[in-house]
Amino acid sequence: MDLGLPYDSESNLVTPKTDKPNVSKSPKLDCDHFVHMGRMFLAEMLGLGLICFTIVLYQPGQKCILPVPLLVGAVFGCVAWVIGPISGAQVNPAVSLSMLMTRRLSFVYTLVYIVAQVVGAMAGAWLGKICGPPSIASDNDVGMAFRNPAVSVGQAVGLEILGTCILITVILSTHDEFRANRWSQGHMSAFPFMFGLTLSLLSAILSIHSGGSMNPALSLGIAVANNNFTEQWIYVVGPLAGAIIATLLYELILSDGAYKERIKAWFTDPHFDRTKEYRVDPFTETMINTDTGLGHP
């Protein structure tokens, strides 16, 4: 049966298609780019839609034996594994903002991602309320994140910033082009596991204090479905601020590629290439600008 996949007659293996449009550049006005953008939109929408659907339907007080943090990590990990090859499984505007800041995602693609995430979150939450029992349909705060009354608004925002900082730092370290090979080999296969595990840990710690959302689209989508926006701005401002802080911290300090010439190119070069070193030869005082090879030994 011909599935329309590239085929290598010598190895008898299907070879993956590698000529996908570059999402770090603005899309061209052609069919290939629109099809690729549509697949990414659908992947992000379905991914966060499934997550919100699960969160709305899951009621831990009614004979549910799986702790909520474990459920959150598991469903995020599954979604990352399925849609990761299509869209990168960002499913979070905070992640998309970080990808925009690091020049991995163009402004147009960032808008596409965020719109898809918000639409998917609303659709998934609505579907969960429709498919669930009457107790879910009549509940106007089902699946929503709220701060503990003992925690002030400022503390809740701070915890959401901190949690998102940790999450974004883990994601950026997984994608770091300058990470040593022994740490980066197979990193994309490990991404769903690390993503899910990190979310489980952060959710377990933050959910009883700040609500532990760390995802503006998820909180907004469920809030729209419930028509309840009480203090939901916390879960928009906090995660977005956390993404900005974590991105600057990692790119300017933690990454092995954090040196003056490359940072300058990151901010000023419209054609900045993340795989280039941008080093200056101390003897000739000229830019080396060599390819990193995606990791050093």
Q: What does this protein look like?
A:
Its main location: membrane. It comes from Paragonimus westermani. It is found in: Cell membrane. The chain crosses the membrane at residues 41-59, 65-86, 107-130, 150-172, 193-212, 232-254. GO terms for molecular function: water channel activity. With 297 residues, the chain is mainly α. It has one domain (24-258): Glycerol uptake facilitator protein (Up-down Bundle), CATH 1.20.1080. It is 58% helix and 1% strand. It is built from 11 helices and 2 strands. The protein has a two-stranded antiparallel ribbon. Helix 4 (107-131) crosses helix 9 (216-226). The chain is globular. Mean pLDDT is 83; it is low at 1-9 and 292-297.
Notable traits:
Glycerol uptake facilitator protein, disordered N terminus, 11 helices, 58% helix, two-stranded antiparallel ribbon, 297 residues
Brief write-up:
With 297 residues, the protein is mainly alpha-helical. The chain has eleven helices and two strands, in the order ββααααααααααα.
Q: Which homologous superfamily in CATH is the superfamily?
A: Glycerol uptake facilitator protein
Oligomer: single chain
Number of strands: 2
Strand percentage, roughly?
under 5%
Q: Compute the average pLDDT.
A: 83
> Could you say what the CATH topology is called?
Glycerol uptake facilitator protein
Strand count, sense and barrel status of the largest sheet are:
2 strands, antiparallel
CATH structural architecture: Up-down Bundle
Estimate the helix proportion, in percent. Answer: 55-70%
What would you call the structural class?
A: mainly alpha
* Separation, N- and C-terminal Cα atoms: 42 Å
- Overall geometry comes to globular
* pLDDT < 50 runs, ≥5 residues: 1-9, 292-297
What is the count of structural domains?
Answer: 1
Helix count from the secondary structure assignment: 11
- CATH class group: Mainly Alpha
Strand arrangement, largest sheet? 1-2
Order of helices and strands: EEHHHHHHHHHHH
* Radius of gyration, taken over Cα atoms and rounded to an integer in Å: 21 Å
